[in-house]
Design a protein that fits this description.
The chain is globular and about 50 Å long. A hairpin with a 2-residue loop joins strand 4 (107-114) and strand 5. The longest helix has 11 residues, at 77-87. Strands 3-4-5 form a 3-stranded antiparallel sheet, with helices on one face. A two-stranded parallel sheet has the order 1-2. It has helices spanning 20-23, 33-41, 60-64, 77-87, 93-101; strands at 13-17, 46-50, 68-71, 107-114, 117-124. It folds into 2 domains: 1-66, no CATH class; 67-127, no CATH class. The chain is 30% helix and 24% strand. It has 127 residues and is an alpha+beta fold.
Length: 127
């Protein structure tokens, strides 16, 4: 029998998934394997980094449980609405919508959530 892992407070393993909307598509109220894995394995030191060009096609369960969100050049109205919903307080959406739409090449919006801190900021990356 496999030895059970004890909960830890550090990173043991990082799983990176590109084009995550193919692996964890939005299926409404259905929670898929990746959704459950993200929630259940966090306490054992496993984190998941997902990337997608279509956040509106990504599992809502997954979006709710991602603690760091990075948005870069959204060009679809559904994607902009969705990322605003998951990145800023609903009362601040009007203030941030132009920031999302006006992102330039090399600029991203970042939201970091920790139990005691939520911040959204605009970052410019230079070559």
């Amino acid at each position: 029998m496999a030895k059970e892992k004890e909960p830890v407070d550090y990173l043991r393993q990082l799983l990176i998934i590109d084009e995550a909307h193919h692996v964890a598509p939005d299926r409404g109220n259905h929670k898929g394997f990746l959704d459950a894995m993200v929630v259940e394995n966090r306490k054992y030191g496993q984190e998941v980094l997902v990337a997608t060009t279509s956040p509106s096609q990504l599992s809502q369960w997954l979006l709710k449980n991602i603690s760091i969100k990075v948005c870069h050049l959204p060009n679809d109205g559904r994607d902009i609405d969705l990322m605003l919903r998951f990145m800023v307080n609903k009362y601040e959406e009007d203030r941030f919508v132009s920031d999302f739409i006006l992102l330039k090449i090399g600029e991203v919006m970042v939201r970091v959530s920790t139990p005691d801190h939520v911040e959204t900021t605009k970052v410019k990356v230079s070559a």
